[in-house]
C-alpha cells in the first residue's frame, strides 16, 4: 500500500475525517429551525460504521482522488443513507425504536420532525455534492449517480419492493433484485463517487468496479440477514430477530444459515476476483470486502 | 411580447408542455415497483396550476432560454413541490385527505407508499436536473439552488417552523420568515432556474429578480391565507378553513381580511416595481404577479 498504515488505522482515520466533515457540512443545532437541525445531526453524527464513505475512500485511493473531494462525496452518500434509515424506522415503515444503540429519530423527537429531518438530509446531500470543487463534468456525473441510486429505480424502489414482500415468498432471484436496489445501488454509487473524485474510469475499470460492488452489495445483505438471525440486539445496536418477527423473506429463511454463510464467502471471493486487473492500490477495496463479510455487527 | 399570444394561451401552452414533460420524465406505472411509480405519477400528474414551472418559463423567456431546458427545470422544481405536498399531507404532518380535489396519496395508497413516493420524487428532481443538456457550470448552479431551496434552510425549514408555530402567536415578521422559507424559497429557485436555462444573470438583474420573488412569494401566501378563510373546499380542491381549525397563525388571523387584501395588492405593485429595469420581455413575470394576487383558488 502506498500509505503503509494498517487497515484498522486507515478505517479509523476515514471515520474520523467523516465525523468532522459531516459535522461541518450539517447546519449547526443552534441555527433556526433548531429542533430540525438537532434531529438531522442526531441522525447522522456519532454512529454507524461509515461503510459507504469507506467505499468512497477505498475507490478514491485507487484513482488518486484528492482527500477533500472524497470527504465531501462520502458525506453526501452518508446523508442519503442516514435519511433512509430515519424514514425506514418510522411507524408507517419498519416501526423500529432502536438504531445504533440509540432511540430512533421519531422516538427521540417526533414523527413530523423525523419526516422533515429525512427530507432535509436528502436535499443536503445534493447541496454538498453540487458544491464539489472539482471538474464540473465529473460533479454532474456524481449528482446523476447519487440521485439515481437514491430514487425509485434504486434505494427507494428496493424499499418499496421490500415492503410489498412482507408475508410473501420470494425466490432467491427476487430477493437479489430487491437488495440490489435497496442496498446495492447506494454501495455501487459510493464506489463510483470515489473514483469520479479522481477521474472518469475507463470501460474495463468501470466493469470491474461494477462486478465488485455487485458482489459486496449482495454479501452485505446476506451477512445482515445472518446477523439478524444470530446476534443479539445489544451487539447490533438495533432490534435483532426483526425480519423473522416481521415475516420478511431473508437469505436465512430461504437458504438456511449454513448455505447463507457459504454464499457470503463465495461473494467475498467474487469481489476479490473482480479486482484482478488492479494492483495493490485496490487493497482497501479488497479489505473492505473482507470486512463486510467477516463483521459481527 | 415577442410571441404575441395572450397570457391565458401562454399559460395553457406551458401547462400542456409540463404535463407532457412530467409524464415523460416520471417512470412508467408499468415499471417495477409499479405501486410506487403509480403513486409518484398520481402525486404529480393531472393537477395543480404549475405556478413554479410558469415562473421558470416566464423568467426563461426574459433570458432567451431554450424551451427544452425550461421544461426540464420546470419538471424538477414541480417534483420537489409535489413531493412536499405528499409529505405535508401525511397524518404526522397536516393530516389532510383532499388535495387538488382528489384523495391525498396516503389515502389513495397507504402511508408507507406516500413516504417513499415523496422521497423518490425528491431524488428524481435532482436526476432530471443533473441531466440538463446545457453548460455544466449553469447546471451545477441550478442543482445548488434547487437543493438549497428544498432543504432545512429553505422549504423543509419553513415547514418545521410552521409545525412549531401551531397554537403560538407569531409576529408578522416571524410569519414572513416562515413563509419566506416554506413557500418563497422554491418560488425564488423557480425564477433563477428559468434564468439560468438562458445564461448567468448580471448583478442588477439578479437583485431585481430577488426583489420580485420576495414580493410574489409573500403575496402568494397572503392570498392563500385569504382564500383559506373565504373560499369553500370545492373551489380550492383542498380542505378550506383548515388553518383556523388547526389554530395556525395566518395573515388573516394577524391582520384581518381587509388589511390582508391591501397587503396582497401592495406586494403585487412591489413585484411590478422590482421589474422596472426590464423591457416587455418581462411581461410574463408581471402577468404572473397579477395572477398570483388575483386568483380565486
From TrEMBL, chains A, B:
PROSITE patterns: POLYPRENYL_SYNTHASE_1, POLYPRENYL_SYNTHASE_2. Keywords: Isoprene biosynthesis, Magnesium, Metal-binding, Transferase. GO terms for cellular component: cytoplasm. InterPro entries: Isoprenoid_synthase_dom_sf (IPR008949), Polyprenyl_synt (IPR000092), Polyprenyl_synt_CS (IPR033749), Prenyl_diphosphate_synthase (IPR053378). The keyword Magnesium applies. The keyword Transcription regulation does not apply. GO terms for biological process: terpenoid biosynthetic process. It holds the Pfam family polyprenyl_synt. Gene3D superfamilies: Farnesyl Diphosphate Synthase. Belongs to the FPP/GGPP synthase family. This is Polyprenyl synthetase family protein.
Amino acid at each position: 500500500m502506498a500509505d503503509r498504515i494498517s487497515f484498522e488505522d486507515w478505517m479509523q482515520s476515514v471515520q474520523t475525517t467523516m465525523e468532522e466533515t459531516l459535522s461541518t457540512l450539517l447546519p449547526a443545532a443552534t441555527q433556526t429551525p433548531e429542533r430540525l437541525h438537532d434531529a438531522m445531526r442526531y441522525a447522522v453524527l456519532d454512529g454507524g460504521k461509515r461503510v459507504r464513505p469507506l467505499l468512497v475512500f477505498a475507490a478514491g485511493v485507487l484513482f488518486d482522488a484528492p482527500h477533500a473531494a472524497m470527504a465531501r462525496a462520502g458525506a453526501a452518500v452518508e446523508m442519503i443513507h442516514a435519511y433512509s434509515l430515519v424514514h425506514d424506522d418510522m411507524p408507517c415503515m419498519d416501526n423500529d425504536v432502536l438504531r445504533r444503540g440509540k432511540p430512533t429519530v421519531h422516538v427521540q423527537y417526533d414523527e413530523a420532525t423525523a419526516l422533515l429531518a429525512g427530507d432535509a438530509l436528502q436535499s443536503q446531500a445534493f447541496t454538498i455534492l453540487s458544491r464539489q470543487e472539482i471538474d464540473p463534468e465529473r460533479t454532474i456525473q456524481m449528482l446523476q449517480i447519487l440521485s439515481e441510486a437514491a430514487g425509485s429505480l434504486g434505494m427507494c424502489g428496493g424499499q418499496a419492493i421490500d415492503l410489498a414482500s412482507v408475508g410473501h415468498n420470494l425466490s432467491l432471484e427476487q430477493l437479489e433484485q430487491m437488495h440490489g436496489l435497496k442496498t446495492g445501488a447506494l454501495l455501487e454509487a459510493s464506489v463510483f463517487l470515489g473514483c469520479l473524485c479522481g477521474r472518469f474510469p475507463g470501460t474495463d475499470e468501470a466493469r470491474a468496479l461494477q462486478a465488485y460492488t455487485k458482489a459486496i452489495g449482495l454479501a452485505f445483505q446476506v451477512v445482515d440477514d445472518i446477523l439478524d438471525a444470530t446476534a443479539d440486539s445489544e451487539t447490533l445496536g438495533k432490534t435483532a430477530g426483526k425480519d423473522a418477527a416481521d415475516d420478511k423473506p431473508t437469505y436465512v429463511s430461504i437458504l438456511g444459515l449454513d448455505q447463507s454463510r457459504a454464499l457470503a464467502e463465495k461473494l467475498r471471493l467474487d469481489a476479490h476476483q473482480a479486482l484482478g486487473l488492479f494492483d495493490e492500490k485496490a487493497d482497501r477495496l479488497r479489505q473492505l470486502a473482507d470486512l463486510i463479510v467477516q463483521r459481527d455487527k
